[in-house]
Amino acid sequence: MRYSQAFIHTLFEVPKEAETPSHIFLLRGSYINPVAAGVYSVLPLGHRVTSKIRAIIREELNRIGGLELTMPVLNPAELWKRSKRYFDISEELIRFKDRRDREFVLAMTHEEVVSDIARQFLRSYRDLPVMLYQIQTKIRDEARPRAGMLRVREFFMKDAYSFHRDFEDLDAYYPRIFNAYVRIFARCGLASVPIEADSGIMGGTGSHEFMLESPHGEDQFVICPGCGYKANTEKAVGLKPGAGAAVDSPPAMEKVGTPGVKTIADLTRFFGVPESSFLKTVACVADGELVLAVVRGDFNLSATKLANHLKAVHLEFAPEEVLAKRRLHAGFLSPVGIKDIRTVVDTGVSESATFVAGANEPDMHCKNVLPGRDFTWADKTDITEVRQGDQCAACGKEKLEIRRGIELGHTFKLGTKYTSSESMDVSYLDNSGEQHRVVMGCYGIGVERLMASVVERWHDESGIQFPISVAPYEIVISALGKKPEITEAAERIYASIDKKYEVLLDDRDESPGVKLKDADLLGIPIRVVVSQKLLKNGEVEIKIRQTGEVRILSEAELYPALDALVKELQPSLEGLPYMPE
């Protein structure tokens, strides 16, 4: 391809709205173009990259027996009502009526449609297991789209769905999809970190996120440098050190006036005790029910863990008007004296220690509060976020580290959430004619997000450093100068390699500086430079974009060198974190 015909329009200035490296360089390199907030056109260069990503995904899923299909983005609302997600999902799901007043949604994922397909066609044990997948548009009305292609409102996603006779068959199949994911990301040049994850609204019996460690990631995950334990912070568990004032004969609870003293920091100074000697009570509304969550003052509540424990679809902090109806006061909340509100206490709250807690009265706190004596609870479970430096619960030795990352993909063991009689009602007959519920798994990868993640990992101050497996072109030929012999040499090299490799010939009438800067910005893995100075000695220059290595070769040496480089630069699949099959 000739640069002059390739629809490449690079930008020198950094777009105002761009903050992350991938957003900046994909815009500047004319890989994408904004249409609206969180909505982008993928331009020809970006299309070449995403096409290669799609090809890798297809190859790996076909390798494990996946069958590709295409499902519509326009879904009848009735399907989503049947699964209950029509009511469970908030504004992210776009709902509307057509001209005949029929209700529809724009699919943000396709569990309902694929389950309906399975209900109609998977009737016998002989039909199972099977895995169906697609690479299709998804629509999600994100409240705060950000970071270019990392969080958008319209995107392509590979979503795959497997169907099984029972949980044992799903468990046996799961490592195959897990390992396919590891290979997909590795072939895109990314070292993914598989972590235990919260299943969230998808539900099911277990899931993994595949994370790319990145300072610009909006997700956090926990890792133990000793035993290798890894989990999303919404799922992670750490050991909680003892706290509170442990006493053999605890004194009676006592109310203390605390006018103007509300925050934990103010209270620690007022009472002269550490944060760990306080009880922090958070009022939440879970599916319409008021709930009090009680944690130690040195921990933060995990809303996800609390929602999972309560099996709540919707969980929010209780607004003041709800508290006022119960004569409760923000800043002075406490489980003390509460009789008719469900109370959930964190496992870090010791029953042999006394604490300071709110008194459920303005400007009042209680000291010497003994859990079990001065208040009771419905449940005691882990509902706090893991902290940097907490001891690992898996090995009990090392301290946990919290890292930032970008989610590359997610795998779920859905079980029977979507196949139950209360949902999509998918069942089959076994070899003795008995009916059983189909067991299901689902697995997603965002295509444009994966392209952006590659750029987040592979860039420098000059631009992108694409791995050769997903680069829009493998080689760029930069002809520096207007003399006929330069043009002739560049054209000769181009003609010699164009049918063997994906080559971009920079044939523009631009200065050498512009051509070299654009080559670096676009991130094409191998640059071949033809210039007057080099030609005087019968030479050309090769530069490897990722390493910056420069080689000066004769034209005769160039062709075998390119053959070797194209193979050498392919991402390695050795030493990957495979799951035993």
Helix content: 25-40%
The fraction of residues assigned to DSSP E strands is 25-35%
Rg estimate, integer Å: 29 Å
How is the quaternary structure best described?
A: single chain
Based on CA inertia axes, which overall geometry fits?
globular
Report the major sheet: 9 strands, mixed
Low-confidence stretches: none
The CATH superfamily of the largest domain is known as: Bira Bifunctional Protein, Domain 2
- The tally of helices reads 14
Tell me the distance between the termini: 43 Å
What do we call the CATH topology of the largest domain? BirA Bifunctional Protein, domain 2
Total of domains: 3
Number of DSSP-assigned strands? 34
* CATH architecture descriptor text of the largest domain: 2-Layer Sandwich
Helix and strand composition category: alpha+beta
CATH class of the largest domain: Alpha Beta
On the 0-100 scale, what is the average pLDDT?
A: 94
